[in-house]
From TrEMBL:
<dbReference type="InterPro" id="IPR020904">
    <property type="entry name" value="Sc_DH/Rdtase_CS"/>
</dbReference>
<dbReference type="GO" id="GO:0016616">
    <property type="term" value="F:oxidoreductase activity, acting on the CH-OH group of donors, NAD or NADP as acceptor"/>
</dbReference>
<protein>
    <recommendedName>
        <fullName>Ketoreductase domain-containing protein</fullName>
    </recommendedName>
</protein>
<dbReference type="InterPro" id="IPR057326">
    <property type="entry name" value="KR_dom"/>
</dbReference>
<dbReference type="InterPro" id="IPR036291">
    <property type="entry name" value="NAD(P)-bd_dom_sf"/>
</dbReference>
<keyword id="KW-0521">NADP</keyword>
<keyword id="KW-0560">Oxidoreductase</keyword>
<dbReference type="InterPro" id="IPR002347">
    <property type="entry name" value="SDR_fam"/>
</dbReference>
<comment type="similarity">
    <text>Belongs to the short-chain dehydrogenases/reductases (SDR) family.</text>
</comment>
<feature type="domain" description="Ketoreductase">
    <location>
        <begin position="18"/>
        <end position="192"/>
    </location>
</feature>
<dbReference type="Pfam" id="PF13561">
    <property type="entry name" value="adh_short_C2"/>
</dbReference>
Length: 266
């Protein structure tokens, strides 16, 4: 591993000249992360889902990045289709001038059902998007980054990387495995100056949790257990993602950074 650059503290967090490929950035946590990385100086390649010919893509994130004066590109991919996923990194690499310095795997889907009734298709869909696509993208990123001896991979894990949850067996299985994958890749690639880390969100007020937010009993139960006294917001991830993407975290390897308002401390 190369030593941490000897620069002043404010510049440790600069991402000037860095190219980022990020999934899940069209809304929620991913959108907040993409904007934060752009504000730190990075150029961003945003992954959009394939759309039908008559559908209008959601360009809110891209437009907001460009409004900051930063570069934003768009690449299309269905993260549930592994052939499409295998084509994603080469396409993004071409769009970004042959260099990607940072990969952020933030996309994810959720399916809820009692385990005795959990559909096999839902299991496969969740494992494909939340785990297999991350593995394929990370492997492609490693093939690019390891020979160059530089790079950052940031995987979005979950509290369910550590806990089992309720009625979400596929999500818990995928996020648990993603935590172990993050550590496994870090063990191999840290020596090549590629840092692989994870961020584990707590209960965040996004559309993925809309069913919990709409359930008065579950909302109260969860809220009472959060020491910070509130659910998180996407903006709570701006600092953590910039830290893990920057030189400030050069010696942080295989870490699962929990951002949960203190939930795990309980």
């Amino acid at each position: 591993m190369d030593p941490t650059p000897s620069v002043s503290s404010p510049h440790l967090f600069s991402l000037a000249g860095q190219n980022v490929l990020i999934t899940g950035a069209t809304r929620g946590i991913g959108q907040a992360c993409a904007l934060a990385l752009a504000q730190a100086g990075a150029s961003i390649c945003v992954v959009h889902r394939h759309l039908s010919p008559d559908a209008e893509p959601n360009m809110d994130t891209v437009n907001a990045i460009r409004a900051l004066g930063a570069t934003a590109q768009v690449v299309y991919c269905d993260l549930g289709n592994m052939d499409s996923v295998r084509e994603l990194f080469p396409k993004a690499l071409e769009l970004m001038g042959g260099n990607i310095h940072i990969l952020v795997n933030c996309a994810g889907i959720q399916r809820r059902s009692p385990s005795v009734d959990f559909p096999e298709k839902d299991w496969d869909d969740v494992l494909d998007v939340n785990l297999k696509s991350v593995w394929l993208l990370s492997q492609a990123a490693g093939q690019h980054m390891v020979p160059l001896r530089r790079g950052k991979i940031i995987n979005f894990c979950s509290l369910l990387t550590f806990q089992g949850g309720l009625t979400v067996p596929a999500y818990a299985a995928a996020k648990g495995a993603l935590g172990q994958l993050t550590k496994a890749l870090s063990n191999e690639w840290s020596q090549h100056n590629v840092q692989v880390n994870g961020i584990c969100p707590g209960y965040i007020a996004t559309d993925m949790n809309e069913r919990l937010l709409a359930d008065p009993t579950r909302f109260r139960q969860i809220s009472e257990r959060i020491p910070a006294g509130r659910w998180g917001s996407p903006e709570d991830f701006a600092g953590p993602v910039v830290f893990l993407a920057s030189s400030a975290s050069q010696y942080v390897c295989g870490e699962l950074l929990v951002v949960d308002g203190g939930w795990m401390g309980r």
